[in-house]
């Protein structure tokens, strides 16, 4: 019996790693695409054009709140019905979600017209970009509207833990978007064309996913005919809290560009956005874990396997903290030099300062965002995380407005960093209490060894910046390789030595057997 349990746990860990690994592949590909596309757009559009584009996406990003948190709520209930094997309830939830998405898509078009007036009258757009920006704004509103129904297939596939197949589609669409953007904007540097490419790629993603869903999941019906007001009420009882959570996220990470555009100048937006993009993509990297853990937490909770919940929480918190610590230290010390090489030397000081401030808070925030928060959502413990995240977002907005005039971009960064750290500490304490994990036990297992192991890594990075004075691409690449190698050795032989939850030796043995 013990051997069977150990085998099941090993297989479960293997499947979890595969799903999270496929999400990580998508994140790496997204970062690589951004690495290519961001300097291309800045150089083709200029700081005024690119700043206007970021402003458009930031304002229209608030239209996403009209989805009312339904996607996360739907995935939770989809996963519950898949675990129970109840196809009828699954179809009712799909039909009800589709009805909500369609209705809210229409509402987006109406409210988007009002935001168009706000954008046109409330911001000073450079004359050369005014007509193009207005058309792009209208197209992005349409993109958000269509995107509501467009996310339905993703939720269905996530509930079936079909992450690898889903991510193949995402990667294909990502390559399509990158190729179209590079090919078209070389000859036609236009914000409206950039917006049209988003719509085209969304349609390709939706129809490819729908085709696979119909082939893979027999008995599944995607039809408004399965709409149920009872199910809608159940979804909204959970999604209201997700709406508040999403609002907190927008206030925390999407409002900064709006504040800068209002109180400084649209030309200043790219300096902040370039730095913030590192944190955003690190969040996506960690959320790759969250996307898998939330339905897993729902499944384990439904089956009454509470002890496994604690193990997953500790195990993946340590993994998230370790990866965040390594990435954060590298970006804090060598990130400004990378920005200077990647975009322009003129970006090193202003964007570098913002990056360092944001990453200091990110080391605290990301492990909580990637593990604690999704597990609470999967367990249905939604009140504390949503209220805390909303309060964090409101405080972020207030501090950013207060500090932007006195210390500029750094003030906006501080306004983001302080609330996210406070949110993380509150969430960590609450999650430990919900799961019955002593806070000191969490600190001892997740944090202490990792911090000690990071000391030699920190010394190496400081020497590379101050002693070697690394600046060139090859120097940065070699520094990254040296830091990654040091991280791997330190974590393998010290941080994870005799770890009770992650048996590196057994994982390596299984890997060797597969290679043979």
Concise summary:
Helix content is 86%, strand content 0%. It is an all-alpha fold.
Please tell me about this protein's structure.
The protein has 16 helices and no strands. It is mostly helical. Helix content is 86%, strand content 0%. The protein starts with a helix and ends with a helix.
Sequence-ordered SSE layout with sheet pairings:
Layout: H1 2-61, H2 70-84, H3 87-122, H4 130-150, H5 152-159, H6 163-187, H7 191-216, H8 229-253, H9 256-263, H10 269-302, H11 306-342, H12 348-379, H13 383-435, H14 439-467, H15 473-495, H16 504-515
Helix pairs in contact: 1-4, 1-6, 1-10, 2-3, 2-5, 2-8, 2-10, 3-4, 3-8, 4-7, 5-7, 6-7, 8-13, 9-13, 10-11, 10-12, 11-12, 11-14, 11-15, 12-13, 14-15
Using only C-alpha atoms, the radius of gyration works out to 23 Å
Helix content: over 70%
What is the structural class?
A: mainly alpha
Distance between the termini: 29 Å
Can you count the beta strands?
0
Strand residue percentage: under 5%
Taking the sheet with the most strands, its summary is:
none
What is the chain-wise order of helices and strands?
Answer: HHHHHHHHHHHHHHHH
Features:
16 helices; single chain; 86% helix; disordered N terminus; mainly alpha; 516 residues
